[in-house]
């Protein structure tokens, strides 16, 4: 095996050989797997060959080296090309390429994920790599203050996703000259030609209008690529760069070049042989490209001192909104932990993220009304080791569900905080009422779902979220409700609180957030009637406190009332009953109170009553169960 | 009460009086409600005054008149202005405005919904009205072939949503000259200035780059507004029109004009009095604007004959993918029902929507990779009485969850079809695996969730979806599996099928889609061991067949195995156990098999085994329960 080495000083003829290798290896790996996207890889091979040889500053032996550039394949289906790059860099072996790609239990997955150390974020749902890259570039420019660049390879089909334009908008707003989007305009999508085909002028007008510096090139002209990457990599201005590269899908293999019907199809072995022959055969070139800049990090110090503010607590009985407690707690957390950053979707005065924005302006990123970019930027910041808290109205996280799902696949530690949940918000009506958020967030792999009822528990849980892996979600409430817990209580994730109990309870009332207050009021009413109710604050909906719930079910003969300000499916009720069945608690009599109709406007109290989830309905349900 | 009437021939001085009335009424209604967005209404009052007097062709007494123009408030929080327009049109009374706005049980909700007959679609989640308007305009131009125009009022904050750019992209792709977006650029968002402020040139460059004809005006100059609306309304070209109107938030009341801190805040009564005084007092002008064109509809006939194709069925034992059956069934349905239309997110060769696209090209709309616009276009088409079927990979409907949620608030009848669900898809890896879709779709109000296991039942359910109200969702599978049902079976929504049963069953196995085949194989294995298993095809997950499930639970002593290709939360298991508890079935022993870890690539069979949801694991769970 010849191991000819390429360096940044190698000729473009040598780079052309590398490009051929990347194509050949894309063909080989996908044919060996019987699955994959060789033609989508071949269109971008020249771009990647020049980039990795001359411009990508990367220490392949030290993927976590902080000065490394970042390479994100937003067109994640071009994974054969990415893995061919890894082989050319000496990071994976040819054997792994040929036996590991798309195989069970292997790390060279169908679309790249961070199980590979050289991958920052999972891609494969299109239009997400560039938004994620904005988050990485924000970290580089404003927090780490390092010289690394973020290179993102985009496909042309994904330019139909609005999220791409949210990303360019934020990249120009934040003057991310360290971000380069390389757009592989190969004209053909999965099921046919793209909307704009090879109209590179149309793409250029769009990218320029969204604030990017645009370079249009022939994506198979190595000298042109070299010039564009040089210019982009040294961008001294205040704009992100978009390189629009006109390319040919399947480039290098005449049988498929620019032909429809070859998306997502590996070549059969005989065709693969012909492709490899046409491309000049198998090569094993090794690239020693540029190394990261050795300059030490100049991490910006946190604004406030690192010791300092204690987690806030609120007097028992005093009314405070849990969203206000979120803001207070985030400020305290930010004062202690310089890795804490916050983002919001232009509702920071409602979510109370504004308190953090004022206290730590250098660590606050306004994402305006672009919830997809909000979550993507958090994902990119998390990839750089920061602890992002992203907030908006709970209802509007539905806008970013695909990004949250992909964040879980990325293994990103994201803290999401949704305010104004449920019918409790009142007059604004159903468009602003999160009634699906608990179901949505619970279904995310490895997620944590929290819904506290008072200020003190909220503040404690915000602090806990900072140390929580994966996607954690905190649901806060619009209105102000009395403090429940004196100082000295702890609120571990996965726990619950028994607020009323006796040795001879008749029924268990389970609430979270606003409905917990209804449960407490109902218990008082019931006590006067001689019915003893145990009341549980189920502030941790996932994971849920199986032990406490089981004990209560047992103590109250399986009689349980669950009240939630959410549609009946997938929320608190589902979590509680699922946990009890898992724990082997049979013989249950459950009254599940939830929002079963489409709400309109009204006061919070009117709507809680209308939905049948207020104190009166909770008491009535308990009476029915204990009759 | 003076009832001066305005007509299209009234002077602009008279229109100015109307604009003052719209402002005054916006102030009055929001102050009376103690809630709402008067300043966001006041910025757009001049635009609406000219539009409703001179250009909006609308019969207010006949909101369902097919020739009516359409007026969509994408900035739904400007509902005080919309309702003031309704008053000026004589559609609602001043009394309703003053006592009904944002009140419990009333129809003038905080954000507009179609409980009002003059509202096409619910708005309030920003960036959705324009995408919905694209759907209405598609119907007008390509299906109804009527001369109506679609006027959409957009805010400037919402222009940060990528969905707005998806909408303009599709509007220009489909040459929707019948669509006019009026953008109210008032510079101030909820929590501060917008990104681009009054940089109308920047907005103009973006809108032009996305294919719109752009007119930039002073949004308080009635003559300029008049000129722009005239030009837009008669657009003879092949482009949508964007009118960029520079406006002042709170215009007309000097205390708040262009001031921060007044978003979403009604004026206290004393301020409201001053505002009304400054605006010249209360008026009761009545507008008799232009009427819809009397020209008869020239509805395009359906391509295929209206009788014709029968619902397909597939031989028992023959392997067919349910996604293929979807395509076949949709073609048959389309042949019989000219109201059936289909849309896809550029994966039509995978979802098999391509079969409909070929059979009925005039009723197929390609939305490319823009899932938000995919669902929004379906919502707009549904608002015009069509029966849209929108398909993409099941995983990618997460991209459009906010649009699906808002579709439910709109009361839209949407048929969504997600292919390639679960780990069964194999090599492509987790980014393409829907593992949260059942939870997401079940939590939508009034939704129907279907997951058939064979071709014949799939085809029957596609037909049933055409007659189903609300959001219905069909989950299809990538691979081919044996046909299970001979001709003559029916598959009602809310039903299930018992595929194996006896009088002395030991355990119930419940599956849907791919896992049903595992249940059947497991039952065969178990039978050989002397364990008799009842097998239920739970193809209708919502609504669910409580009767059959309860009977099975009773017959098998509460011993139930549920297997699903989905994360454990909110899916089939949650639906089954919730139904059994609701039915009063206590004493359950449930084994819930679901995808509990993060999958990678592999074959479908490898991954079903890895997840513990294949026949072997189902049989093992049944053995444990029956020990």
What does this structure look like?
The structure is a homodimer of 627-residue chains. With 627 residues, chain A is of the alpha/beta class. In chain A, 38% of the residues lie in helices and 15% in strands. Chain A contains 22 helices and 21 strands. The first copy, chain A, has a seven-stranded mixed beta sheet, sandwiched between helices. Chain A has a five-stranded parallel beta sheet with strand order 2-3-4-6-5, with helices on both faces. Chain A has a five-stranded mixed beta sheet with strand order 16-18-17-20-21, sandwiched between helices. In chain A, helix 7 links the parallel strand 3 and strand 4.
Layout of helices and strands:
2 copies of one chain form a homodimer.
Chain A: E1 5-7, H1 12-33, H2 38-42, H3 45-55, E2 70-73, H4 79-88, H5 94-100, H6 129-144, E3 150-155, H7 162-173, E4 179-185, H8 200-209, E5 213-218, H9 222-233, E6 241-246, H10 269-278, E7 286-288, E8 319-321, H11 322-336, E9 340-344, H12 348-351, H13 354-359, E10 364-366, H14 371-383, E11 387-393, H15 401-409, E12 414-419, H16 437-442, E13 448-450, H17 455-466, E14 471-475, E15 480-482, E16 497-500, E17 507-511, H18 514-528, E18 533-537, E19 540-542, H19 546-555, E20 559-563, H20 572-582, E21 589-593, H21 604-611, H22 615-626
Features:
38% helix, 5-stranded parallel β-sheet, homodimer, 7-stranded mixed β-sheet, alpha/beta, 627 residues, 22 helices
Largest contact between chains: A-B, 117 and 116 residues
Mean pLDDT of chain A: 96
Distance between the termini of chain A: 83 Å
- Low-confidence stretches of chain A at least 5 residues in length (pLDDT < 50)? none
Give the percentage of residues in beta strands of chain A. Answer: 15-25%
Shape of chain A: elongated
Number of strands of chain A: 21
**SS-based structural class of chain A?**
alpha/beta
